[in-house]
Amino acid sequence: MAYVHVEQAVKSFPREDGTDMLVLGGVSFDAKERGITCLLGPSGCGKSTLLNVIARLERLDQGYVEIVSNHGESGTRLPQLGYVFQDPRLLNWKRVEENLIFALRGMDVPRRQWDERIHTYLGLVGLLEFRKQYPLYLSGGMRQRVGLARALVIEPDILLMDEPFSKLDQLTARKLREDTLEICARLQQTALLVTHDVEEAAYMGDRIVIFSARPAHIVEVLDNPFSPLERDLDDVRFIQFKKQLLQTVLNLVKEKEEA
Amino acid sequence: MSSLNNFTPTGPTQREETLSVHSQAESLRGATEAPFRRAKPAAAREMLKDVGLRVGSIVALVFAWWVTSLFFPPTLVPRPWDTFAEVSAIVSTGNFFIEMGSTLRRVLVGFGIAMVVSIPLGILMGTLRSLESFFEPPVILGLTMPGLIWAVLMIMFFGLTETSAYAAVAVTIFPMLAISIWQGTKAIDKDLIDMSEVFHASAWSKVVDVILPQLVSHLLAAIRYGLGLAWKVVVVVEMFGFSNGVGYQVVRGFNVFSMKTVLAWAITFLVVMIVIEFGFIGWLERSVTRWRPRVEAWRR
User: Fold this and answer.
1) Which of A43, B127, B288, B291 has the fewest beta carbons under 10 Å from its own?
2) Is A91 in the B-facing interface, judged by CB distances under 8 Å?
3) What does pTM read for this prediction?
């Protein structure tokens, strides 16, 4: 398992007119080990940028991201990251299992483990019977499940998810949230989930990191008082917690407007 | 966030309601998550109708030809069956296979050369801005140059050798192939490249698994147009003084003013092209786009 520590992350992008736009204004937090950490904030606040920094697709201007994986007795090695994108980003010309193999090959997983891994993780997302199917013959929700399986099949130290449910219809998203939560709990997966949806954060996050609008800094970090199994969307106490979280975020927006 | 409103029950009755919403959600999900079926082959009747229309169109064409031939002497418009008899004579003597073989070889070699050069160049032009600026003018100029002029230039340069035929074909179709691959490369999904980086795909895997499959439809379109252009050029080159090939046979027909011979060679040529177009390229297209569902609901 692994732990993630972000320290004073600063990142800006060049604007068209040549000036710099500050996106991350010194962000620090620790992700929860063996749990899901939700990065919650308004759209365009830089949460996804931070996720891309962690995935090494972008570089920070200042500060650092520390990812340490301790693999039992064997000591440390380069941490492995699985990424679930907003769109599934599958290779549509490859069958479901070949999409998983693409990740397995890239991550140098020994070939003899492939079959068993594919079986395990496709089973976990409930798509075992679609192993030989092409992605475009699957529904949007199922394609997103393939994306999840592809991220999990490499048995990553950290699972990164960038608003993976936001393009799905409400009902499909709800079911996929449930399943993702259950899978992560069962695997004790350390995961980072970017979202702008307060309810989703309350439901998915073992730890919730609230971002301000751009330039992003961290307003509050709170641990979910409910364990994954206790989060019943219809439970009055849980609803209370969601309301409270929503209020916190709303106040933030208001403060911003007044400022 | 507005969806929160749906989840604020306070009393037991409301709670029941949300529960029922949940079960409804489950059943609806079943419906939306159902996978698309692979498009079934059109019903046999539909297919028969389709074939009927195609055959009918050809019969109508031959009929129109026959009607026209009634108004002209056979030296100007030969009767369809006389021409077909000539076709079968050409084919049965074995002459056809030798002549068509030479022409096909010239097309394929020239085509192959153009492909080998244009694929890497097109990919590089689509990825590197400096190469794009450098190669864009010659490619566009090449596209505007008529194939006839290339044919003349190549024959003057290489003489009446096979090389001049290969070169003329290659040079004529090269700009078009390069342009479609260049444009196809520019349209590649950057998100998939990011994805392949996240999963540490090797450079080879990026090209073979991620980039080339996205170029397939551009390549197929380029091959179609390219072949069409290649036939035209190769016939012109052969007319200039080769002693074999379909172009030469057509010129021979012209020299003795035999409309029948010219038309007969044109027909054999068309048949071979159709076999290549529908047989080989159609098969190629079906086998490389098997992953894409056929959605033709909008067509009538």
Assistant:
1) A43
2) yes
3) 0.76
